[in-house]
């Protein structure tokens, strides 16, 4: 069998295929996130005005820069599929790992469902513009999920090369819009007068409430580390791709705020469904309109595509460690993908995409992500304490420790408060779900885990143990 | 029936096609290969082979 790894005296094993480079990591991270520039972030403007949108953009940018730095260090050292799940397993313990694995699967599957709903909405809008009212969105939602699941099933290289191309086009569309508007190509001039005439319409509470939606600019960049087992050089590619990704997003987010806030009155911008596309419509340039519509579609597809990739890797890793039935830990012998996990998550994504409203789906995704970021803070502290610098090889060492961790924890606390202001019931429901799942894992599932097999890093004994 | 109605049917048909492609291949693989081989993947292979974590 040519598709297996076999050393002399050892049985043949199927492994995920190591074919990815830094560009694919960039495409995975930015691909998942860039849709947040095309829609969603602008509700922060509705919550607190134009300045609140900018504050949310940069404060969330700071939060995610901390996430990217911390993640780069830990992931370049714990290079395994499952990303933060594998980190939690090695650094904190099994119960934390189980929860983090669930955070990841829920965050990405919900985001995938949200993206599929958005694709249906976009096509409905186009059909409406062409005079066809009442488009049945369901077949397009189902097709988006089925096609991307099939692409993921067939191989990771094609999947993320596809993501690289469509993400690059979506990013270049934002750059093009910015340059055209800056060079006077818009029928409507940029107008920032609201910054002085109506700076904080809802006061400081509005600015804090805006932070919830500021997360949309960057939500998912930490997904880069799910590809750890499929990159050729994890210690180099993961930090490089992740840090390049967060820099790309900081640029894209600032340009997006600048163009949209300058072209669209904040009262309208705060409720717009597709702010970048609407900004292109305001310019009166039909080529820009087409480009930004394509960018919106591509960014949505890229996000759903990356989410399928990441959710399936997290589910696969949990199955492989018997945190879930081992059946999910299978690798396709030809395509070398976690094919059972990919197929299993399809109906779950379809249930949420066809049966739940968009804002609820995205809120559950954000909450799961936020729980994951909170985990990263004490995970980082424990990692440095148990294995101090110099005790193990790290692909990347992030500077100023523990400052990024403290900043991240503070910002997470603020974001929880911001979410609670708008979606307190969902926050409590989601917490209850994870408590019930933890009880099930502790009392029912953990007995099936092969405890000695789950720790795979050839590290020395941790400090203090 | 306008273009969008035709596209709706085409989307359903393509969705069914992709689902059949995945499910039929999964059934073929699961019946052709031994489950122990399919679930033989282990975490940390690259670390075991390439890195000793010795400074």
Helix content of chain A: 55-70%
Strand content of chain B: under 5%
The count of domains of chain A is 1
Q: Measure the end-to-end span of chain A.
A: 43 Å
Largest sheet of chain A: none
Mean pLDDT of chain B: 86
What is the CATH homology-level superfamily of chain A?
Amino acid/polyamine transporter I
CATH architecture of chain A: Up-down Bundle
Question: Would you list the SSEs of chain A in sequence order as H and E?
Answer: HHHHHHHHHHHHHHHHH
For the largest beta-sheet of chain B, the strand count, sense and barrel status come to: none
- Number of distinct beta strands of chain B: 0
Oligomer: heterodimer
How many DSSP E strands of chain A? 0
Distance, first to last CA of chain B: 71 Å
Going by helix content, strand content and strand pairing, the class of chain A is mainly alpha
**What is the overall pLDDT average of chain A?**
91
Radius of gyration of chain A: 22 Å
* Helix share bin of chain B: over 70%
Query: Strand portion of chain A, in percent?
Result: under 5%
SSE-based structural type of chain B = mainly alpha
Protein name (chain A): Amino acid permease
Keywords (chain A): Membrane, Transmembrane, Transmembrane helix
Organism (chain A): Shinella kummerowiae
Domain Amino acid permease/ SLC12A (chain A): 35-430
Secondary structure elements and pairings:
The complex is a heterodimer of chains A (465) and B (55).
Chain A: H1 22-33, H2 35-38, H3 43-48, H4 50-75, H5 84-91, H6 94-129, H7 138-154, H8 156-182, H9 194-197, H10 203-214, H11 234-263, H12 266-269, H13 275-283, H14 286-320, H15 339-355, H16 358-386, H17 403-445
Helix pairs in contact in A: 1-8, 1-11, 1-14, 4-10, 4-11, 4-16, 4-17, 5-6, 5-16, 6-7, 6-14, 6-15, 6-16, 6-17, 7-14, 7-15, 8-11, 8-14, 10-17, 11-13, 13-14, 14-15, 16-17
Chain B: H1 3-32, H2 35-38, H3 45-50
């Amino acid at each position: 069998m040519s598709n297996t790894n076999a050393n002399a005296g050892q049985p043949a094993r199927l492994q995920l295929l190591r074919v990815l480079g830094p560009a694919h990591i960039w495409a995975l991270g930015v691909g998942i996130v860039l849709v947040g520039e095309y829609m969603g972030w602008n509700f922060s403007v509705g919550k607190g005005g134009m300045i609140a949108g900018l504050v949310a953009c940069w404060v969330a940018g700071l939060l995610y820069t901390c996430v990217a730095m911390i993640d780069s260090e830990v992931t370049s050292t714990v290079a395994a599929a499952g990303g933060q799940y594998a980190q939690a397993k090695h650094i904190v313990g099994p119960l934390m790992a189980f929860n983090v694995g669930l955070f990841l699967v829920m965050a990405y599957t919900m985001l995938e469902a949200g993206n599929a709903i958005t694709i249906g909405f976009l096509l409905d809008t186009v059909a409406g513009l062409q005079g066809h009212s009442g488009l049945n969105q369901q077949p397009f939602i189902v097709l988006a999920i089925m096609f991307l699941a099939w692409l993921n099933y067939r191989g990771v290289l094609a999947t993320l090369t596809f993501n690289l191309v469509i993400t690059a086009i979506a990013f270049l569309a934002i750059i093009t819009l910015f340059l055209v508007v800056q060079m006077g190509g818009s029928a409507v001039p940029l107008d920032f007068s609201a910054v002085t005439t109506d700076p904080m319409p809802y006061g400081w509470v509005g600015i804090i409430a805006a932070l919830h939606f500021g997360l949309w600019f960057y939500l998912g960049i930490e997904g880069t580390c799910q590809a750890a087992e499929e990159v050729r050089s994890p210690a180099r590619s993961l930090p490089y791709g992740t840090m390049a990704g967060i820099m790309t997003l900081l640029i894209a987010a600032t340009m997006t705020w600048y163009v949209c806030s300058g072209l669209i009155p904040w009262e309208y911008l705060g409720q717009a469904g597709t702010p970048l596309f609407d900004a292109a419509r305001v310019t009166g340039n039909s080529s820009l309109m087409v480009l930004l519509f394509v960018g919106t579609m591509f960014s949505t597809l890229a996000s759903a595509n990356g989410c399928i990739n990441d959710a399936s890797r997290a589910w696969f890793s949990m199955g492989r460690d018997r945190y879930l039935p081992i059946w999910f830990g299978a690798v396709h012998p030809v395509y070398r993908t976690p094919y059972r996990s990919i197929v299993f998550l399809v109906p779950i994504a379809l249930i949420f995409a066809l049966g739940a409203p968009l804002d609820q789906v995205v809120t559950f995704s954000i909450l799961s992500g936020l729980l994951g970021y909170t985990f990263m803070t004490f995970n980082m502290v424990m990692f440095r304490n148990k294995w101090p610098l110099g005790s193990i090889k790290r692909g990347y060492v992030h500077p100023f420790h523990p400052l990024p961790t403290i900043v991240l924890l503070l910002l997470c606390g603020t974001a929880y408060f911001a979410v609670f202001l708008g979606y307190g019931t969902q926050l409590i429901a989601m917490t209850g779900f994870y408590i019930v799942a933890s009880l099930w894992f502790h009392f029912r599932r953990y007995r099936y885990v092969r405890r000695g097999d789950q720790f795979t890093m050839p590290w020395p004994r941790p400090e203090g143990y | 029936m306008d273009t969008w109605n035709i596209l709706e049917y085409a989307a359903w048909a393509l969705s069914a096609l992709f689902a059949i492609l995945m499910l039929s291949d999964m059934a073929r693989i699961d019946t052709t290969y031994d489950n122990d081989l399919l679930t033989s993947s282990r975490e940390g292979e690259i670390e075991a082979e390439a890195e000793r974590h010795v400074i």
